[in-house]
Amino acid sequence: MTHLTDLIAAIASGVDPGPFALLRREGADELELFTGPVDTVERLADIPLTPGAPGAQTLALVPFRQISERGFACVDDGAPLECLQVRDHRRIALADALAILPDEQVRTIDAAFDITDEEYARTVHRVLAEEIGRGEGANFVIHRTMHATVQGPPLMAALAALRRLLVAERGAYWTFVVHTGARTMVGASPERHVSVDDGLVMMNPISGTFRRAGDTPDREALLRFLDDPKEVEELYMVLDEELKMMATVAEHGGQVIGPYLKEMSHLAHTEYLLAGRGTRDVREVLRETMFAPTVTGSPMENACRVIARHERRGRGYYSGVLALLGHDEAGRQTLDAPILIRTAEISPTGRLRVPVGATLVRHSTAAGEVAETHAKAAGVLAALGLGPAAPDRGSEPVARLADDPAVRDALAMRNAPLARFWLDQRAPDAPGLPGLVGRQALIVDAEDTFTGMLAHQLGALGLAVTTRPWHASGSVDGYDLVVAGPGPGDPGSTDEPKMVALRELLGGLLATGRPTLAVCLGHQVLAGQLGMPLHRRDAPYQGLQREVPLFGTTRRVGFYSTFTARAEADRLDTAYGPVELARDPGDGAVHALRGRGFAGVQFHPESVLSPDGLAVLTELLTDLLPAPRADELSTTGGRA
């Protein structure tokens, strides 16, 4: 059955119409109806996508457990990767769809969160103290789930909820029902995770939640929200994390566009768009971007460990994606994938799940994060009869807070402190620095894919960059520069394998004199090797931008750290020669160091929070890798 009227008639008569998806994309005046068989596959690479006619080919329902394909931790709940193979695709005018869809109240019983407000607040406290406070990351998303039982036919309830969302919710990227036979998903996701069209890869980090109070938009409350340090830093942190992903799937990294205000019926969010050109298979793009930091945290690999530790249960499809794969008229692959949030899952027996999470950062409060989970669930819960509906304004135009000049100015000011390297259009054929062009750099990744962004910056300076995980064996011979990269964890640990490996790496580099740059965790380990004590900060520097003195120049840079080295003087004599230190004048924290053949920085020069980051790298690298002399060029063919 392919027509919406026939499909609804079958459901009303108690017949399962077979798998289908009904969705509206943002701004569209029509719904799309996909029908076809559903298969289950094991890996993202197995999602069916073969060359053929233009259009949608497969709609994949990707669970969170697929994160294990990246080698990341998760509680495996067995949720299957289901693929609806599109055999028929119809378009239905929005007005016609609203006339056909059931206009009735969804009835549910036994509604309750699996974790009470008090229990969730205790979890927030634990994550802030045990994870962010101990250097395990900058932010983490912990979820809870509303459970209920739908009264009446589950599919009719899902279609009725879809109609309510189409009428009452606004600002959604996709509003949809997907029925595979084993489950029905209905939701209004605000967030594009990743899309690929005409070779353009786009991601859409959304963070910060403004809870609307009452029927009238509150301009002053919104302006306070836009100026709130917690909300500002939360968006910057997820922006950095998605730039890490774009560094992998876009050939020259991502360009930052925005920010914008995404207004929905019960709340509003701040968001950026990221764009870059790429040539990867779209299934590889999906794999390399599992999953959005807005629903996991950062750094990503350790965020997955933290989620498994504190949630102790599977996520099902929450924070996974719907992924529509196909081809365009020129035969190029296409992808459109919203995040599975603000989404309800209904079983064939009527069991209902609505998962929702909050992003925990160093400024978080337990009460605020509890309230955020209620606000985020409000739209889909209202559609399911589990909460108050948004005000019905009929045909009246909706007042947009984003149109207010003061709001536009406040949004624009978000970019003032950010690095132009990521905001401006970059020429892929820029020449680089003469002394660095063609020289080889190895970045050792300590479990923070900031290394991908760092690789793009080093590449822009002219270096040819290779990245290697900390646990991979291999020689450093043949590299002009070795970078000990960032990552989570306690640099003072004597038995943690990663710290042992980094100490061995840096010890060897210091002994041989091979030019070395150490960043964040690498810097901390290097400082320890040079004899400096390491301390845990009283308050973590996670997603924090500061102006700091660096060897005679004040620089604005971004920190993601909980530990720091300290020193009592600006110079230190070591077994590897004298070392110059850039220290905090208050507590002696070592922001940077440099000696003969090595340098280290506690901050992230590659971060969007480091407007002076590229200048810092330029100065350090031109000192570490001086331009070869003319006689060296003649004997090495131009490579030092």
Automatic annotation (TrEMBL):
Residues 117-376 form the Chorismate-utilising enzyme C-terminal domain. Keywords: Glutamine amidotransferase, Lyase. It catalyses: chorismate + L-glutamine = anthranilate + pyruvate + L-glutamate + H(+). Coiled coil: none annotated. Residues 442-620 form the Glutamine amidotransferase domain. It holds the Pfam family Chorismate_bind. It is an enzyme of class 4 (lyase). Its EC number is 4.1.3.27. This is anthranilate synthase. CDD domains: GATase1_Anthranilate_Synthase (cd01743). InterPro entries: ADC_synthase (IPR005801), Anth_synth_I-like (IPR019999), Chorismate_C (IPR015890), Class_I_gatase-like (IPR029062), GATASE (IPR017926), TrpG/PapA_dom (IPR006221).
